[in-house]
Each structure stands twice: as C-alpha cells, then as structure tokens.
Amino acid sequence: MTRVAVVGSANLDLVAHTPRRPAPGETVLGTGYFQHPGGKGLNQAAAAATVTPTSFVGRRGSDDAGRLLEAELVRRGVDTSRFLAMEGPSGHALITVTPDGENSITVLPGANYLLLPDDVTRALDVLAPQVVLTQQEIPLATTGATARWALTHGARLMLNASPSAALPEEVLAAADPLVVNLTEAHFLTATDTPSDAAKILAKQCVSVIITLGSDGSLVVENGRTTHLPAPRLTAVADTTGAGDMFAGVTAARLARGTGLVEAAHHATQAAAQAIQTPRSSR
Ligand code: RIB
User: Fold this and answer.
1) Which of 161, 172, 226, 252 is most buried per CB count within 10 Å?
2) Structure confidence by residue, pLDDT tens digits, 132-186
3) CB of 110 closer than 8 Å to CB of 122
4) Is residue 182 part of a domain?
C-alpha cells in the first residue's frame, strides 16, 4: 500500500568539489569529482521510504543514467512501477560543492520535462496515496495536475516550490504544507524577513514551512507560527539534498498521522544527520 507518492524529478548529479565557487569568467581547479543519483523527486522519495511505503512517479531516459536512477530507487525501497522509461536523455544536474558544504546547481531536465499531466493522474489513480509530495523540476502543467488530483481525491498535497517558478493561485491554495527556503520564499513574497514571508504565504496556502538552514524552520498552521531550531553542528560535509531529506521525512510522517510541527521536528533531525554525512554514505 502506498502512503506517499512523490511526483517529481530524477537526475544524475555530476558533482565537482572546489576550494571556492568560480566567479563569472573564472576557472578554478577542483579537488574531487563524484556521481550520485539525485533530483529533488528521487531524493525526497528515498527519504520518505525510510519511514513509510512510498512510490515515485516520474520519467527517466533510456540511457545508463536512467537505469542507475531506477536501480537506486529500488535499492532505497521505493516503488518504481510508475517511473516510466522513454527514448532520450535522463535528467542531469551539474553541482559545485565548496568546503563549507554549500552547493550551486544547474539542472538539465531531460526526461523530467516529459512527465505529462496524464502520466500523473493515471499513476495516482492506481496508487491512491494519502500524501502527494511534489516539486518544480517537472512541467508546471504537471504540477497543476498533481495538485488537482490531490484536491479532488482527498489526498494531502505537500508542495516543495523548488526551484522557484511562478505558481497558479489554485496550486498554492492546495498546498498543505508549502515548503520553501528563504530564497524561494523571497521569490513568492518579495520579502527577506522570514516571519513576514510566513504571514504572507499562510494567507495563500493551507499551511507553510519556511526552512532557514542552520536557524531551523518556521511552521505556520491554523494561524499559529512555531519556530523549530536546528541542532548545532560542528561539521558539515555536503548540504546537497538536505532540503529533500526534510521534505521527504515530513511527508512520510504526515502520512502516518503525525501532526505538522512534530513531523517537521523529526525531519529537522534527519536533515541534520544528512548534512554531516558524505552523500556516498547516506
Ligand atoms: O535538492 C538537491 C537536488 O537538486 C540535486 O540532487 C539535484 O539533482 C537537483 O535536483
């Protein structure tokens, strides 16, 4: 039985570790190169599957990268019956990680951008999840169809509005919760103050989580704002995928009946553990 369906992207992450981020027009020598299965959808599905039965709805290419991405989801215990293969390249992400663990990411969507609204509604009809979790590395029309399916079938929609893109009002209105970081919150509200952004977004969505990195997160539900602090960490290996760990674990806890604040608390602990662990060992 599927409790969480993650509708989203799968990318092969091509990761360069560098002493610092290159400035425009500058070349820097890297210190290491790694490949990891990634994509916000795949990362979030893998995280959710550590807590509850999870299916992934997405598209991959017919290349080696696509086979590797599917194998990774299977290894992580995610149901891939709705991860469709198609001719052409899989999604890829070019990632630079600096010694402070921060990243810069360029995504080449490939097959992810061929995930169609019909693929999603057909898949969700069969999977009948309690919680649907989605992001924005798939076409906007597909995100819209995902939100509509959740609304009309009584499922809870969790929307991680990342990367930033203009969203129709009805999609935002269905989000319970909307999960954004500060940059994404600024894009949607034009304010840099987390508490102001939270108030604005809370009027547009059912519930909201703004993640604040080392400052934890703000959770707004039923007019009440809770600040959840993050654990103090001495070492950070790589922050890539920490937000996905947070989103996936929150969705899975919600599907198991946990309240939003407590679900986000568990997710904060999971994300803290992730960023102290090199990606190859997660
Ligand atoms: O959130 C991290 C993810 O963003 C990476 O795995 C990369 O593929 C991009 O989708």
Assistant:
1) 252
2) 999 999 999 999 999 999 999 999 999 999 999 999 999 999 999 999 999 999 9
3) no
4) yes
The tally of domains found in the chain comes to: 1
Q: How far apart are CA 165 and CA 147, in angstroms?
A: 15
For 257: left if phi > 0, alpha if psi spans -120 to 50, otherwise beta; the answer is left
Give the global pTM.
0.97
Rg, C-alpha atoms of the chain: 18
pLDDT per residue as tens digits for the range 42-101: 999 999 999 999 999 999 999 999 999 999 999 999 999 999 999 999 999 999 999 999
Token couple for 71: 């194998």
Q: Which residues line ligand 1 (CB under 6 A)?
A: 9, 11, 13, 38-40, 43, 93, 105, 107, 137, 240-241, 243-244
- Domain-located, residue 246: yes
Nearest in space to 36 (alpha carbons), one of 77, 68, 1 = 68
**Domain at 183, CATH number:** 3.40.1190.20
